[in-house]
Amino acid sequence: MAFSRDPDLDQCPDELRPLIARCLSKDPAQRPRPAELIRELWPGPAPPPADWLPPAIIAQMGAYRAAPPPAPFPFRARRVDRRMLIAAGVGAFATLIICGLVIAVMPDNSSADHGGSPGADPSTAARATAGTAKDPSPSRPAQTVYLTDLDPVSQTANVLDPRQTWTDRPVIIDGRTHEHGITVGLGCDNQIREYALSRRYGHFRATLGLADDTPNAAPTSMKIAGDGKTIRSQTLRLGHPLTVDLDVRGLIRLSLTVDANDTCRDGTIEIALGDPLLEP
Q1: Mind telling me which residue stretches traverse the membrane in this protein (predicted)?
Q2: What structural domains does the chain harbor?
Q3: What are 91-121's pLDDT values in tens digits?
Q4: What DSSP assignment string belongs to 59-70?
């Protein structure tokens, strides 16, 4: 079997390309012998010493010699063209000699460049350190919390009338005190408060109503929405508290809205949520 095309030696160094081309010649007679290769590649006038190869390569060659021969195949091997075997052997031997010479004459700058042991890869230590670094914001399972334990991401406020601002405080609804309460006064403008749930909770429970100390007891509507969709809309009346248990699984945002309906009240209506609880 003959080679169908010439080898591609464009990536070889210019000073080695002619010698490698001879080693890969299609004509076996044109290929240099090992002794000739050593004479051409060895820089000194005298022949190379017995231990001219780097210790690592000598040890590797010794391991190959010490390895037991492979077990014979149970089947008859196919016939291989002898010329191909010779060409492959000469090419491999030439490559081994060239690599040995390059390693032998190359200065060892590994310790100076890397600041560590010779041959150490500085990127390996960096990857190991990065792999053991802790995540600054690990994902933790949700726990049962009151809505007052979370910071709202947005809310309306009235700087002229503090009563028309969302406030976290204990509140009394229909004679019952709720230590964890949310109140907001409704005057002429809608009141909106929004929380980030990040899909961590499953249920929202709370008591809705008007605070017992509300200046104005007019019925008022409250809307609870998740990700922009209404979950519950309820009319609130003084003395008629309402307990809600809503499914908030998969929601990213939860919003509370009290609608003024384009009406201004003589006295502020105090809307209240008692013990608003979020559960996984």
Answers
A1: 85-106
A2: 17-66+82-108 (no CATH), 145-279 (2.60.120.1060)
A3: 666 666 666 665 655 555 544 444 444 444 4
A4: HHHHHHHHSPPP
